[in-house]
Design a protein that fits this description.
It holds the Pfam family Choline_kinase. GO terms for molecular function: choline kinase activity; ethanolamine kinase activity. This is Choline kinase 2. The protein is mostly helical. It has one domain: Aminoglycoside 3'-phosphotransferase, Chain: A, domain 2, CATH 3.90.1200. It contains 4 helices and 2 strands, in the order ββαααα. α3 runs antiparallel to α4. The protein is globular and about 50 Å long. It starts with a strand and ends with a helix.
Length: 132
């Protein structure tokens, strides 16, 4: 995050940083929209908050137009398809994270339930995504 007033950079969750394909990072961003870590039950995910296809297209078009050129429909669709596939990887990674974290962390967070929800999303979405 960059503080606009001070121009200072703050690294958030640096321990989770890694070099990923852009489609994975965007997929993970979309998946995280289901979370509210500041609620009374931060482990409960609401996939009704997952962006619909119009919001996804708007996001992808904005991302791809950063070069100054308007992306064509094929380029947008190709990235959207990759994002959907990488959403499965995000669910697996964070599901496994939940299982491991349940054994190594003592904070008040239901890691098992969080993992269950991520794996449930994986299994629900997998058939439709992988038959495309």
């Amino acid at each position: 995050m960059i503080d606009e007033e001070t121009n200072m950079l703050t690294i958030i969750d640096y321990e989770y940083a890694s070099l990923n394909p852009v489609a994975y990072d965007i997929a993970n961003h979309f998946c995280e929209m289901a979370a509210d870590y500041h609620s009374a039950k931060p482990h409960i995910l609401d996939y009704g908050k997952y962006p619909d296809i119009d919001e996804q297209k708007r996001f992808v078009k904005t991302y791809l137009s950063i070069s100054g050129e308007e992306p064509d429909a094929e380029e947008v669709e190709k990235l959207l398809q990759s994002i959907e596939k990488y959403s499965l990887a995000s669910h697996l990674v964070w599901g496994l994270w939940g299982i491991i974290s349940d054994h190594v962390n003592d904070i008040d967070f239901d890691y098992k339930e969080y993992a269950r929800q991520r794996f449930e999303q994986y299994w629900q979405k997998k058939p439709a995504i992988l038959t495309c």
